[in-house]
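Human: If only I could read backbone structure tokens as easily as an amino acid sequence. Take your time, and here it is.
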Amino acid sequence: KLGRGGIREIEFIAQTFQVIRGGRNPFLRERSTLKALQALASENILAKDKAEMLSKIYVFLRNMEHALQYENDQQTQLFAADPEHRTRIAKMLGFTVEDLQKQLELSTEYVAARFDEIFQTKEEVSEEDWPLGWENGAPGALPGLAKVLERNGFKETEELGQLILNLMSLRALKLINAGARQRMITLVKNTVEGKNKPEHLKLISREELLRRYIKFYEVIAGRPTYVSLLLQYPLAAKRLGDVLGSGKWAAEYLNRHPLLLDELWDERLSQIDDYTPVDFSFYIERTRARLADIPEDDQETRMNLIREVHHARLFRLFLADMAGRLTVERLADQLSALADATLEIVMEEVWKTVPGRHIERPKFAIVAYGKLGGKELAYASDLDLVFLFEDDAQDAEKIYMRFARRLINWLTATTGSGVLFDVDMRLRPNGESGMLVSSVDSFEKYQKNEDGTGAWLWEHQALTRARYAAGDRDIGDKFEKIRIEILRRERNAGETKAEVLKMRQRMHDGHPNKTELFDVKHDEGGMVDVEFIVQYLVLQYSSKFPQLVNNFGNIKMLEMVSDAGLIPKDLAFEVSAIYRKYRRIQHEFRLNSPSVPVRVPKEEFAEEAQKVRALWSLVFGPSEGQGA
């Protein structure tokens, strides 16, 4: 029972995951070890094959314990060496002595191996001399701490030493018990001395990585459980280093949402790759089930839960991305589907709170434009949304206006668990001066612009990347019908080209680049040029080639317009590869500089930019250069 690989170790594995996750996941609050293992497997927190094997071994060891107690008629778990004793126990369990001994050895070895995967039983404590008082943040320890840092290969030692002293001076550390404080001391020592550090640091220095570690330790200083688990579970500690070293965005995201540390010892991390289905129906159902355990009038807790499950899934995708298991396109598909699913859940939640609601489900749909509309969403992208309704109820517009305001608040409000999305509603009919919600009829009239007061051509251009995202499917279908009708209009080529070029010039003027670098997104030959080429061809030629109305993303659309004979296939293939490269560069850049323009040495992308400009000239004419 208490020996290496025995009953207690199985129970401890199950109980540890219950302690980590049970506070936020009621499905894990099982008293029975077997039921707990089953729940951990069903929630994919523990791999199914491991949970099943641990369950079988648990039953075997319990049966053996019962046989021992029956044979001796006393509370014992000792399998004695006496041959007669062993023969009687084996016979009771239906084994030969040899088979029982073999089964026992295999079972305890398996349990011990799983235990060692999860826990590190000894804390690694430095044997090198650290200055007296550093662990309490004493200012006089700074010179000695700087020497420790220098000895471990760090530069900027005084600055880093001061950051460590600031950490150790935190009030949160003074309020925890001595044992918990000692574990933080050990964790800081291990970090400085390079234990569990990432194998490769590509983009940042060791000094910057240490700064990020210290910042995160400040966040979890009042959470002794996390500190203990980072010491006891080396895989999680290594993954933490990988995350902090991967980019500024990830480090800041983890600092804002420290609960995501739970994800670093999640068995599911190795299961997400390019072949993972883009299907969030299970995510929606699981979230609904967890919301069912929270009182409906406890709005804050419900908002927090939705944020926590969204952040956890997004972070899981990031970890798969960081491990190189997702292409940029597949990652964008997953992030876009996650946003759709979260919008669906939030809509359901918010509708329950709307005064005057008159039906169980709102006759209301969310239409996505921009990156979400094109299924090219990134980690920190805004959501460009338009709200539509179709309801004959007397106060329908008033009710749905109230609903829309609450919906935006739920999506954008900062709670104890952070924020979900930044939302941009400027693409709605009449822009910022327009109503937050539109009826399907009024949206259609606006898009058709039969009276001259409706949509401009650039708004039709935006429709090329628009799609139904969440809510009433029938309204979504009606939107798609309107969208197709608008895009399939016959247009005067000269007028369409002039309007698209005018819009491109406005974008160019709005993002001036006075440096010697190449702006991957906005400069001539960059991403926006590729996107405008595709959008112009869709607007101008969908009347003749109806397949072009499909919103398949720019890479697939380049292939489709080349199949239609509108651009040369070889050039379309080259520009597709270039656009994919641009997206990858932008993605990597955003991880470290989320709000800075993506600019790189011009000479490194001269050939790519020239190919894009060649396609631009072919489509718009050599004298129609953008930004000229």
